[in-house]
Amino acid sequence: MTRRVLVVTHSGREEAVAATEETVRALEAVGLTPVLAVDDGGPEPLGDLELAIVLGGDGTILRAAELTRGTGIPLLGVNLGHVGFLAESERENIAEAVRRLADGDFAVEERSTLDVEVHLPGEADVVHGWALNEAALEKSDPARMIEVVIEVDGRPLSAFGCDGVVMATATGSTAHAFSAGGPVVWPDVDGMILVPLSAHALFARPLVVGPSSVLAVEIVNRSPANAMLSCDGRRRVEVPVGSRIEVRRSGVPVRLARLTHAPFTDRLVSKFGLPVDGWRGGTGAPRPYGTSVGREG
After folding, report:
1. Which sequence positions are flagged as catalytic?
2. How far apart are CA 43 and CA 73, in angstroms?
3. Are 26 and 94 in contact (CB under 8 A)?
4. Separation of alpha carbons 258 and 30, rounded Å
5. pLDDT tens digit string along 118-173?
6. Which residues contact 172 (CB under 8 A, 6 or more apart)?
7. Potential cystine with 287: which of 57, 138, 175, 291 (Cβ 3.0-4.6 Å)?
8. pLDDT by residue (tens digit) across 194-227?
9. What three-state secondary structure class fits 64?
């Protein structure tokens, strides 16, 4: 039986071309058949694939998630970008990663995605979309705000002028939502985030809601500008005044292959280069300076 592995990469970078050639050789050496997807194209058709190796940054992983949507194929990211938050392996470890994949020596982690509906004024048909990271609604005219009402579970919460609204998964909490001042949410938290962008309002704080909630944003008729909705920065739709966007948890997850069992905290520290000097940690270890230990006796 032929074991086929999708290789997703971006051919425009010299490093990516070299990494792709190395990956293909490594796959063939362990008896796996590579199926290449480069640029914005993909293999036609995908057929039976065992898994996918993604060479690049988070943007390339998002494209691989789009290519494999609904197949259940695990994605292993090899970081060729700057941060590569979704990636599992680094460039220098390709051969070892391929060997472990061939041996089945990896775990699979499921990440929730979003179902997105856009209700356009005067249109009976609903525009459907999805996102792994976020659905970002942003103003089309740089000189004008959009006026919106945000809603949670069918009830209005607040109205304000803003540059936009980001609705994200826990996975997307370290992407656009993070840049806008949203919270970092651990990936095992099965919820959604709403983060207003540059809102002119007394109450325009980031929100975290549960997995069964429905988030909605309406561009009210008094809004001076239209907007654009972008799902993961890849799938876009124009959103005129009077439109309504609804976002809920999808039943179709993205599956990520994991080679290590390091906690998410370690990934945060590594990817963002966070300072942890002075940490003592561990059961029975001395407490860090500045903590209260109470009085004995």
Report:
1. 58
2. 15
3. yes
4. 19
5. 999 999 999 999 999 999 999 999 999 999 999 999 999 999 999 999 999 999 99
6. 131, 132, 133, 134, 193
7. 291
8. 999 999 988 889 999 999 999 999 999 998 889 9
9. helix
Nearest-angstrom CA–CA distance, 143 and 163: 10
Q: DSSP per residue over 82-113, as a string? A: SS-TT--EEGGGHHHHHHHHHTT--EEEEE--
From 245, 224, 248, 225, select the one nearest 236 (Cα to Cα): 245
Question: Cβ atoms within 10 A of the Cβ of 273, count?
Answer: 8
DSSP state at residue 206? -
pTM: 0.88
Rounded to whole angstroms, the Cα distance separating 223 from 241 reads 6
Query: 289 falls in which pLDDT band (50, 70, 90)?
Result: very low
Q: Which domains does the chain have, with CATH numbers?
A: 4-105 (3.40.50.10330), 114-249 (2.60.200.30)
pLDDT digits over 228-280, tens only?
A: 999 999 999 999 999 999 999 999 999 999 998 888 999 899 888 899 999 98
Nearest Cα residue to 133 out of 62, 209, 75, 33:
62
| Spatial separation of the C-alpha atoms in residues 74 and 254, rounded to whole Å | 8
Residue 59, H or E segment:
helix 58-67
Mode of pairing for the β-strands spanning 75-79 and 89-90: parallel
Q: Are 75 and 255 in contact (CB under 8 A)?
A: yes
Question: Token pair of 109, please?
Answer: 């982690």
Cα(169)–Cα(231) distance, integer angstroms: 12
CA-closest candidate to residue 276, choices 288, 290, 292, 260:
288
The answer to whether the CB of 83 falls within 8 A of the CB of 69 is: no
Q: How far is 9 from 57, CA to CA, in rounded Å?
A: 9
Are 54 and 257 spatial neighbours (Cβ–Cβ below 8 Å)? no
Q: Which residue has the tokens 């809102």?
A: 199
